[in-house]
Amino acid sequence: MVIRKAKLSEAKIIHRLIEKGGKDGFLLPRALSEIYEKIRDYWVGVEGNEVVMVCGLHPVWEDLAEILSLVVDRKWRGKGWGRKLVKKAEEEAKELGVKRIFVLTAIPSYFEKLGYRKISKRKLPHKVWRDCLNCPYFPNCKEEALIKDL
Q1: Is 39 left (phi over 0), alpha (psi -120 to 50) or beta?
Q2: CATH value at residue 126
Q3: What is the greatest pairwise CA distance in the chain?
Q4: What is the pTM of this model?
């Protein structure tokens, strides 16, 4: 398995993985256009020639970034690959000078095992005003906010 930055030609594959994660009930949908626009934010895991997992890192403020759209294809789950993707995103965040990294997730226990702690969404005003207001689940969000100091 190779973990590397996503290529523009992989946007549709990334979109399909995110859609599958949404059907599993733990990931919010993302428009294909948004994936193209933010392709540089994504890391992928590639086995052979197949993209089998994805994770995004999106800076939102001078010292704050978001982990987004972490999804691992079903046949690769439970093998530690998601953890490795999150680690790559955290390493990149450190290189960018990010001090804190957060995630909104329907599976908070996963991120708690990686050192994230729960916080109120009110402590993430930039995220709430930028994305949450346009989310189809707003204001009845099922996701929890977690943060980690880097």
Answers
A1: alpha
A2: 3.40.630.30
A3: 42
A4: 0.87
